[in-house]
Amino acid sequence: MIQTFSIASYLAVKEVWRNRGRFLLVSLVIALITLLVLFVAALGEGLGNGNREYLSKLDADMIVFQAKSDNVIAASRLGRDRLAAVRRVDGVADAAMIGTSSASLILPGDDEPLKVAMLGVEPGRTGEPTVLEGQQLSTDQASEAIIDRNTAIRSSLAVGDTLTVRTTQGTRDEFFDLRIVGISDGQQFQLQPSIFVPFFTWDRIRSKSEAEVNSLTSVGNVILVKLQDPAQLEQVSQRLVAQVSNIETATLTKAIQALPGYSAQQSTLNTQGGFTLFIGILVIGGFFQIQILQKVAQIGVLKAIGAANPVVAFSSIIQIVVITVIGVLIGALLTFSFSLFFPPTVPIVFNGTTSLIAIIALLLIGPLGGLVSIRYAVRIEPLKALGLSS
Question: pTM to 2 decimals?
Answer without folding.
Answer: 0.78
